[in-house]
Amino acid sequence: MAKRTVAVVRQLGGIGDVIAMSCVYRGLKEQYPDYRIQLLCGRVYLGGALLDVAEHNPFIDEIHVVEPYDATTEETRKVWAKYFANCPHLEDELIWQKAEIKIDLNCACVEYEWRAMLEPSGIVKPRYQIWCDRAGVVPSTYAPVYRIRKDEQSHADTFLREKGLEGPKLVGVGVSSCDSKRAMGIGRLHTVCEMLRESGCTPVTIDPTFKFDDGTPYIIGKRVSELMPIMARMAAVVTVDSGLLHMAGTVGTPVIGLFGPTDYKMRMGMYRGSALDSRRLMPCAPCWYQYHCLKSGSLNDQFKCMNKIKPEIIVEETLRWIDNS
User: Fold this and answer.
1) What is d(CA 23, CA 271) in angstroms, rounded to the nearest whole number?
2) What value does the mean pLDDT of the chain take?
3) Which CATH architecture has domain 5-135?
4) Is 267 in contact with 286 (CB distance < 8 Å)?
5) Mind listing the pLDDT tens digit for each residue in 254-289?
6) Residue 53 and residue 18 in contact, taking contact as beta carbons nearer than 8 Å
7) 20 touches 130 (CB < 8 A)
8) Rounded to an integer, what distance in angstroms lies between the CA atom of residue 143 and that of residue 246?
9) Of 24, 33, 127, 291, which is the most exposed, with the fewest CB atoms less than 10 Å away?
């Protein structure tokens, strides 16, 4: 007799979201040990990056690849229409209909964040707890789940050795975010790299396409499964709010997270490291989803928050974590 199933749909969002919600599947497996946990997820985001993360979660029994919105539930369509735009209708509900337990993890955080902006207390729950609440589980630990395979770690070690990037003070520097509103100025990040080098560290930029033209080491175009074991060998990772932040935090590497419009309370919860944000430097920070500065007629007023974080503080925090590790 076939096992009963729990179907989970998640095809919106990015790498950081899928990593942060990985503890949901631990909770589901602990609560329903005799069920098969099935994930419905899309391949379109960054060439299958979300699937790459899910395939390294031992609590997921089966992954079904769907096109964007093909597994979008009625609940998701309503939330998406309310806060963003209309979604296409559900095309294929076969897997969803057959599952005994159905969980939609697409919009729980969207709903929570919009409501929290209107409350005096603001955001008080991290994202991983919001997703677990939606799934109705309390896992034995909220720690993110990602299993690096032995061959992947071996390939990463070979790559670092061949690139001459071995050493106790190797620091990854994330250059960009898929959401440009979270980014820091390239010139400021270049200064961070220069200061790290002067402090005896080896900075290496990590980005899908960008590199500095001054000889700074770089890592370009790697998949999640390739980057995770590479970052596991780093002394620290400096990055804006992006998938890299969650990837480094998941493998236990200290993260120096740089936050402007987004709230670190939702994103840095389980990770070693420091969250540097501008909430005491800018009266409007964090402003997630509101972006008051975009209403200004002057480009000089937009996203000042990220550039209020001084390179000296970033480097100081990075060295502190390296020295204390």
Assistant:
1) 14
2) 84
3) 3-Layer(aba) Sandwich (3.40)
4) no
5) 999 999 888 888 888 889 999 998 877 777 777 776
6) yes
7) no
8) 11
9) 33
Are 132 and 25 in contact by the 8 Å Cβ rule? The answer is no
Cα torsion for 118, 124, 126, 127, to the nearest 10°?
A: -20
Q: What angle do CA 83, 242, 131 make, to 5 degrees?
A: 55
Stated pTM of the model: 0.86
For the 150-324 domain, the top CATH level (class) is: alpha beta
323: Cβ contacts below 8 Å, ≥ 6 apart: none
Question: Is there a contact between 246 and 209 (Cβ–Cβ < 8 Å)?
Answer: no
Q: How does DSSP classify residue 115?
A: H
Q: Which two tokens stand for residue 321?
A: 């974590």
Alpha helices in the chain (DSSP H): 15-20, 22-31, 49-54, 74-83, 94-98, 108-116, 127-135, 150-162, 186-198, 224-231, 243-250, 311-324
How far is the C-alpha of 151 from the C-alpha of 157, rounded, in Å? Answer: 10
For residue 180, the tally of other CB atoms under 10 A from its CB is 8
What DSSP letter does each residue of 59-80 carry, written as one string? T--EEEEE-TTTT--HHHHHHH
CA distance 41 to 71: 8
Angle at 231 between CA 230 and CA 235, to 5 degrees: 120
Residues pairing with 65 in the sheet: 41
Helix 127-135 × helix 22-31 angle, to 10°: 30
Q: Distance between CA atoms of 234 and 107, rounded to whole angstroms?
A: 33
- Token duo for residue 36: 């098969």
Rounded-to-integer distance, Cα 277 and Cα 308, Å: 9
Which candidate, 312, 324, 315, places its Cα nearest to that of 201? 315
Which of 199, 179, 208 lies closest to 46 in space, CA to CA? 208
Given this chain, do its domains 5-135 and 150-324 carry the same CATH topology?
A: yes
Distance CA 313, CA 311 (A): 5
In the chain, domain spans: 5-135, 150-324
